[in-house]
Every structure is written in C-alpha cells, then in structure tokens.
Amino acid sequence: LGEGGYVLAHPLLVPPNVNVRGSGITATTVLLAPAAWSNFGYSFLVKPDGTVSAGSTNLVSDLTVNGNCKIGAGAPDPQIAPVNACDLGAARNYGGGIKAGDRWTVRQVRFTNLNYFKLWIAGTSDAHAIDNRFDGWGGAGSGDEDNIGGGANAIGTVLDHNQFDATIRGNSVDFTNASEVTITHNTVHATREYLAFRGVSDYGSIYLEGVTSSTVAANVLSGAHLVLQSNSRYDHSGNNVNVTNAKAIAVTDNQIIDSFHTGITVVYDDYAGDPHVALKGGANVFTGNAITRPTLSGILIVGCVADPAAPVEMQDQPDTLTGNTITNAGYGGSTSFSTGCGTFDTTGIGTSIGDGDLVYDNTIVDDQAAPTTWYGIHIGARNGQTAPRNMVLTDPTDQSTNTASGVIGGLLRTAAAAPAPPTELTGVRNGADVTVAWKEAYQSAGFMIGGYRVYRDGAPIATFPVSPTVAGNLLTEAQSSLESGIAGTDWARVTLRTQLGWYGMAGAVGDASLALTAVGSSGQVSALGATVDVTAGASYTSTASFQALGTGSKIRAGIAWLDANNASLGKVLPPASGLYTDSTGAWLTRAFTATAPAGAVRARPFVVADTCLAGETHLVDRIALVAGPATESWTEVNAPAGPGVYQVVAFRSTDGENSPAASVPVP
C-alpha cells in the first residue's frame, strides 16, 4: 500500500501467504469508514479470511490502523489529548484493529482510535507482534478493551518490543488460556494523569490468566504492573469451564516503576460448584526484577480457596523468588492491602500459599526520609484463606541472604502471629507537643498485647507496655483496679444468678479483681459499675479485661445509660457475633464505643459473661469508662514542627510481632 489513507467499509479478509504492508508506520493508514460501524461488530479492520493452510505465513506491517472511534481523530500528534467517548453510532465492541491468524507477524503497526480490541491473538499458533505502537494521540477515542488481548488456547505467541503510550486505554496485554507465551522488551507508560482522566484505578497492566509455560522478561512497566492468575473469574463456560492456574512462568529482569498497585501479583484459586477440572499451579520463577515505588507491595503470592469448608490449595509446586530488588514499597499508598483472600501489610515480598517456596537473595530497600515499607518478607496473610508452609529463606549454601534496609518494622513478618491493631487513632498538636490517642487493641487468646510502638513518618519514637491505668478513665482507681476490695466501689450485680465478689489472688493490673460467679442456674452473669456523668450525643468507651477461673465464656464490656432521675435508658453491648472466650491462661481485653442517647446524663460500665454454667466464675479487672474512643495515649514532648504522620502498632507479648499499623496525620 502506498502513502495515504485506505477507507474500509468491511473487514479486509487476508488469505494465507498474503502480506499487507504499508509505506511506513505513519505514511499509510487503514481507516474504518465512519458510517460502517455496523459491519464491524466484534470484528476487526484486518483479519484472516478463515482459510486454513498448513505452514502458511502472513505479515501485516508498516502502517496505522485507525478505527475512527472519534471521527477524523488519531493523527500521530501526541500534543492533542485523547477523549474517552466515541462518536454516536460507534456501539461498544464495534471496530477492532487487527485479528491475527496462525503464524501471522504484526510488525511496525500503529494502533489508535479503536473501539474494540486493538490487536486480538486467540486460538493461534506462533503469532508474533513485534515493535508495534499503541496510543490515543491526535484526539483519539478508545473502547475499554485491552490493547493486545486474546488467548483461547493460543500457543507460541511472541510479544516483543511493543510500546504502549500513556494515552492508551485498557490493559496493555490480557491473555486468557494460553501457553508458551513470550513477552519481552515491551515498554508501557501509564501515568496518574491519564489514570484520573480515564476514571479507572489501573490501566496499562499485563494480565496472564490461565497461562502456563511462558516467559515475561526485560519489560519496562511504568505505572503498570503484572498479574498472573487463573481463569476462574470468567463465566464458567467454553474454555473457562475448567480452571488453569499459573504454572511454569519465568518472570525475569523486568523493571516495574511507580505501579498503581502491587508490582507483581500471583493468585492461585478455583471456583466452587459445577463439575470441572481445576489444574494446580506453581513452579513459577521470579528473579532479577526491579520494582520501584509500587503503591502497595512489591511482590504478592496469594492463595484463595473455593470452599472454605473443604479448602484445596491450588498450588502444588513451589515458586522461586530470588535476586529481586524492591525499593520504597507503599509509596503514596496505604499501610495494608486486602486481596480478598487475606490482608498484607506493605511489604517487599509477601506470600500466603505454598509448600517449600524458595525466597532468598532478595533486597528490600526504603531510602525515603519518611519510609513507607513496613516489612521485607511477609509470611502469611492476616485472615488468609491459605497459609505458606516450609518456606525456604536461605540460598543453596544455607545462607540467609534476604536483606531489608530502611524498612519500618523489620525484615520478617509472620502474619499468623499478628495481634489486632489499635483503632480510633487521633493526633492533636498542643503547642510544642503532640498527643496521639487510640482505642486499645483487643487482647484475644494467643494474641496478648504486650504494649505499643509509636512511629513518626515511619521512624520509631516510642515503645511501651500496656498502661496499668486507662487514660481518661472516669472511674476512680479503686473502682477500676479493685486492689482494696469492692466495698464502697458501687459495683452491683444485674441478674439474680450473678454472685458478686472480690478475688485477691489475680488481676490484669495488680493482684485483685472483681469476681462474677453464676449461682442457682446457668445463663448470663453481669454487673454494673460506678455512676459517672455523661453528655447526651457524645461518645463513650467501656473497656475491661477478663479471665476465667475455669470454664471460659463469651465476654463483653458495655454501657448502661441513665436519665436525670437515675432511671434506665437501656444497656448497650457489642454484638454477640465475633466475641472471644476468656480462659485461665491470660487476660482478654474487650472495648466498646457507643453514643449517649437523648436524655442521658449518667452512665455505668456494664460487664457481661454469656452462657455461664452454675458455679462458673469470671474475673474482671482494669475496668474503665472514658469519654470518646481513646483508652491509650502517648505524648511526644517538643515534637518536630510541621505536618507529620504518626503510626501506632500493638505488639504481641510472646514474640513482639506487630499488629497492622494505624495512622493519623498531624498538622
């Protein structure tokens, strides 16, 4: 084809062994006729004619494919910004670019202004896309489908040296059900400016879904990221009835910069119901990748289960992660991320599945003045549906070679040992001082809180144990700690089956506590504490620590409201679902915040042990009722001037493992 434009009212059907070559990538344009969109439904300007010819080859090269999504737009001028909408008449999924066939090579083609997939490679053998350009220049419009899409059992696809401009829309590459895919030396530029312009949370990324035995190497992804996952998220029909997880994929020497998400994510999963075959994944290798400033973590390996009642982990061979460098993870992002199958705190590398995964010789760095990377290696996810086993953190010579420098919380993070976080964090600057206050972390069996760590802009500034007294407690010390008995403390039983007493041999604070014993019949035992003044419409928090002397029961701390005549306005408690059972081994802390109702002028702490057997005793201590949610606080005297972000974690008493971080900005 000579220079100029060639207007197509119908797809150009290319027979085997016929090449379509232009006179230059910008010199020749194949253009969809403005009034002919109806002839291109789920179709393309250039595609095979359907003839099967063994060993045939085709080349499409040296031209521009313009879908006229925005009529008259798409000139090779990067100074003219793209638009989001196509012109009227261009229905969704009408007007794609090129559909490749077996042994097709698409080379030096510019794709622009297209309302459907720009390049479609599906069900093919040995299709190659080499040195092509994808953009939205010249005021082009674009459908939201991917730039290179397809899969459908394609084999031997090669995507090499393609370039994706910041003005594209959709993923750079998305293949579903394919094998022996080679993705090398491609460059993606995605920016937050166009992220906002497109109104999406991500674009330009590479998705391989149900892809096996492939290579992703030496690509440069700016703003974009890489996802390896199964095909389980599609409608369970056709090629997607059965599930294929990522297997035997080599991800090497890629640069991933300023990703809007995690740099590399791998998800192993399945779906529940409907008879189908689910192929397990694994044996993927991640080496030599440089991930810089990802919004979330560097690399996450995630496990999900189809049926929590009968979990089956969809990875049966270990992955290898070695020689990767992650710098400044969490840049501009949050301190944690829920994958839907478990939560990771911001980390260099995190995994929540696998047996014997090899994770060594990785470098995690945070060199920011205010670091955002919490951990180097994150073993397991909080509330994860699966858990890693037998992870190998040493190299073949048995040396521990993973390193983390400048991170906030340290090299290793064991999420299974993470206690609950503090909540309701507030920060107030008062003159030269800053006071940070929070609702204390729940203590639960196996996750006893040893104390708290406070950070300013990622730098540690304080570590201290749980306070023996609750900050701002409206009760007196005698009413709270009961060290001198219960006489004169105004504690009173609520139900007749409750026997109220004093126990002088154990306390959460000191050596004494309040004893609630079930007598006569089984059921709830409860007590009310001293009366304090409150203001209607204001919030208050009740907290107490519990320990069983024998059989454990569900325990709660609540509030009873009173009017000016000391008449009851009702009692409030946290819901029964999700409650913890106390035990003889440790003191469990419960806290509950509620708003004083209209007419309330007084309140009493209300402590409860549910469904107790006759003779069962529960101890209660460190009891408090405070205004607002905060039951712990810390003040930095002569704090640095100017804005800062304060972070607080609880740490477990047995091993010092941190909770997730709570953060608050302070002007």
Secondary structure category: mainly beta
Total beta-strand segments: 58
Number of helical regions: 2
Helix amount, in percent?
Answer: under 10%
What's the story with the biggest beta sheet? Answer: 34 strands, parallel
What Rg, in angstroms, do the CA atoms define?
A: 31 Å
Overall residue-averaged pLDDT value: 95
Summarize the structure.
The chain is an all-beta fold. The protein is 2% helix and 43% strand.
Walk me through the structure:
The chain is mostly beta strands and 667 residues long. It is 2% helix and 43% strand. It contains two helices and 58 strands. The strands form eight sheets. The protein has a 34-stranded parallel sheet that branches. Strands 45, 48, 49, 51, 52 and 54 form a six-stranded antiparallel sheet that branches. Strands 46-47-55-50-53 form a five-stranded antiparallel sheet. It is elongated, with a radius of gyration of 31 Å.
Write the layout of secondary structure elements.
Blueprint: E1 4-8, E2 12-14, E3 20-21, E4 28-32, E5 44-48, E6 58-66, E7 96-99, E8 104-112, E9 119-122, E10 128-130, E11 133-134, E12 148-155, E13 158-160, E14 163-164, E15 173-179, E16 182-184, E17 187-189, H1 192-198, E18 206-217, E19 220-222, E20 226-229, E21 243-244, E22 247-252, E23 255-257, E24 264-268, E25 278-279, E26 281-282, E27 285-287, E28 290-292, E29 299-303, E30 315-317, E31 320-322, E32 325-327, E33 336-338, E34 343-345, E35 347-351, E36 358-360, E37 363-365, E38 375-379, E39 403-405, E40 412-414, E41 423-430, E42 433-439, E43 449-456, E44 459-465, H2 477-481, E45 492-493, E46 498-503, E47 513-518, E48 523-528, E49 532-533, E50 539-548, E51 555-562, E52 568-572, E53 588-595, E54 602-612, E55 617-627, E56 632-636, E57 644-652, E58 662-666
Parallel strand pairs: 1-4, 2-5, 3-6, 4-6, 5-7, 6-8, 7-9, 8-10, 8-11, 9-12, 10-13, 11-14, 12-15, 13-16, 14-17, 15-18, 16-18, 17-19, 18-20, 18-22, 19-23, 20-24, 21-25, 22-27, 23-28, 24-29, 26-30, 27-31, 28-32, 29-35, 31-36, 32-37, 35-38, 37-39, 38-40
Antiparallel strand pairs: 33-34, 41-42, 42-56, 43-44, 43-57, 45-48, 46-47, 47-55, 48-54, 49-54, 50-53, 50-55, 51-52, 51-54, 57-58
